[in-house]
Amino acid sequence: MEEAGSAFFVSTAWTVGGLLLVVAVTGLSRKAGWSAPLVLVAAGVGAAFLPFTPEVRLDPDVVLIGVLPALLFAAALQTSYLEVRARGDSILALSVGLVLFSVVVIGFVTYWLLDLVVPGLPVAVGVATGLAFGAILAPTDAVSVNALAGTGRVPRRLAALLEGEGLLNDATALVSLNTAVFAITNTGVGFGSAIVDFVVAVVGGVAGGVVVAWVIVQVRRRLRAPVLDTSISLTAPYVAYLPAAWFHGSGFLAVVLTGIWLGYRAPSFQSAESRIAERINWRTVSFLLENAVFLLIGLQLPGIVAAAARTDIGFLPGVLIIAGIYLTMVLARFAYVFAATLLYRFGPEVLRERRWDWRTAFIISFAGVRGVVTLAAVFLLPTGTTPVVGFLQLAAFVIVVLSLLQGLAVGPLVRVLRLPLPNPEQDRMQIRNLVAEAQTAAITRLEQEASEDDPAELVTSLKRSAEYRVLLGTSDEQGLVRQPDAYSRLRLLMLDSERRAVMDARQEGRYEESVIDAVLGDFDSIETALKRSYRRDLAKPAPRPPRFRRARSRP
Asked: Is 41 in contact with 294 (CB distance < 8 Å)?
């Protein structure tokens, strides 16, 4: 019992130390302008070779089932449903077509390169191994792409396209990987069964996501306590993933669809306090999980190198194979994206309306960053039957690091190609216009709801305050929320109309999603302050009458 307690104490101490290291390294990296994932991997590699660091073995199921659903859900909550719907054909072309193309091209090149250095490699096993490795390298990483897009270094429309691709391509890649792994361990698997598996995964994932999203909306609509609502939110990715995976659907697709829909519908069923709590909690969870995974990946490097050293592939052939696979991965993406660009520019009219230019095509091709999914999926290769599995694990690690380094050049390339970046002044102008629309709706609601019992001075003050916010272009309450219940009642009614006006503007697509989110976030803060002030006023005891002391008579 004492030994078990001691072991638990040591593992807890290492976990806490790792989390503190993640916070420190990420904070310093952001302050210095460096790539946090790369610095965390380097920190993990450095710590792994210290004599007192324990050996780390990351279970791929822990990442794929325990971590990745939460990361995908957090990213999906911030993804614009309207942007995904508007660019659905482009996102599907990248998340399905490009992934399948990459699986085939990378797979056969990997088989050809391995066949040159591994004597006696059976054709069936070699091809299946190559296709499995192609499926491992095919998906871009939603977390890494989201971090890249969130820096403001790429155009907003392009960022939405890359984020949508990164969220949805995991399902395609992992279904392809499962089929290839089955082919490695079982002979006779056919192309028809692979197609059936893929269709079942997609249909099951979509159905699971739709059903779970609807159920969660109905449940959370009836909750008023932010703690309960946030608790449901934290379990939502697993509620979506587990049933879909149980019925052989794509759990990742179910998680992504659930997250996108809940994020889009949040203002219609959540209270302001719940939305603020959910945003803060998911930002914290996402920050810790995604950065901890990169640190753990670096800590695994000694074991990966040792496994690669036990294979028959020498150092120079290994370097050449990794370089060949990496170049194939990059060139396959360029070839597919530029072929799609030709189709969009010279194809049917419906495609020509959605075309992008060659500069955009170049950035899309160059921004194929790999990350957590690739590094976790490579450990799914069966160790007993996969040829040179240790070398493939090392190759995946090196290729992910190279792709992260490549991602650092996306921002400078955008500037060189002179693509339009997000304009802060334009965003501020849109915020002013959107706030003006919302305040106009609020004034109309105030005139409809104000009764004779409401103080005329209060109604006039609210109206003037709204008119002032129209001129000022801000939703700040200027400290006016601490007022009696009449103010709170009327201001909340006005705020409801403001939020409805913003949601209507979002539905019509007249403003950028970042502008919509900024204004809705201000409304949430105002509503939270209003309700907190109102509850505090109600909880205050009635003031006691003043106590007068009897004056003492002087002698």
From this structure: yes
The structure's pTM equals 0.75
Structure tokens at 141: 């990483």
* Residue 545 DSSP one-character state: P
Token look-up 């006691």 returns: 544
Choose among 413, 348, 421: nearest CA to 152: 421
What mean pLDDT comes out for the span 293-302? 84
- pLDDT over 70 at 413, yes or no: yes
- Indicate if the pLDDT at residue 236 is higher than 90: yes
Q: DSSP of 118-176, one letter per residue?
A: STT--HHHHHHHHHHHHHHHSSPPHHHHHHHHTTT-S-HHHHHHHHHHHHHHHHHHHHH
CA dist., res. 324 & res. 318, Å (int) = 10
Rounded to 10 deg, the angle between the 156-185 and 123-137 helix axes is 160
Give the model's confidence band at 190: pLDDT under 50 very low, under 70 low, under 90 confident, else very high: low
Q: Where are the beta strands (DSSP E) in 236-374?
A: none
* CA–CA dist 461, 491 (Å, integer): 11
Cβ–Cβ < 8 Å for 84, 160: yes
Neighbours of 529 (CB within 10 A): 16
In angstroms, the CA 455 to CA 227 distance is 36
* Alpha carbon distance 141, 252 (integer Å): 13
Residue 553: is it exposed, middle or buried by C-beta count within 10 angstroms (0-12/13-18/19+)?
exposed
Give me the DSSP letters along 357-414. -HHHHHHHHHT----HHHHHHGGGS-TTTSTTHHHHHHHHHHHHHHHHHHHTTHHHHH
Helix 301-309, helix 272-299: angle, nearest 10: 40
The answer to whether the CB of 245 falls within 8 A of the CB of 40 is no
Burial 538-550 (b: 16+ CB within 10 A, else e): eeeeeeeeeeeee
CA 243 remoteness from chain centre: 21
- Are 191 and 182 within 8 A, CB to CB? no
The 8-class DSSP code of residue 273 comes to: H
| CA–CA gap between residue 505 and residue 516 (Å, rounded) | 8
Cα gap 515→509, rounded to integer Å: 11
Token representation of residue 89: 């054909």
**Would you give the DSSP letter of residue 554?**
P
Region 35-49: mean pLDDT is 85
Collapsing DSSP to helix, strand or coil, 57 comes out as: coil
H/E/C letters for each residue in 478-540?
CCCCCCCHHHHHHHHHHHHHHHHHHHHHHHHCCCCHHHHHHHHHHHHHHHHHHHHHHHHHHHC
Query: Which candidate, 205, 179, 219, places its Cα nearest to that of 72?
Result: 205
Please compute the mean of the pLDDT values over residues 298-314 and round it to a whole number.
84
Give the pLDDT confidence of 381-391 residue by residue, as tens digits.
887 777 888 89
Model confidence band, residue 323 (pLDDT cutoffs 50, 70, 90) = very high
Closest CA to 130 of 409, 402, 389: 389
d(CA 154, CA 420): 8
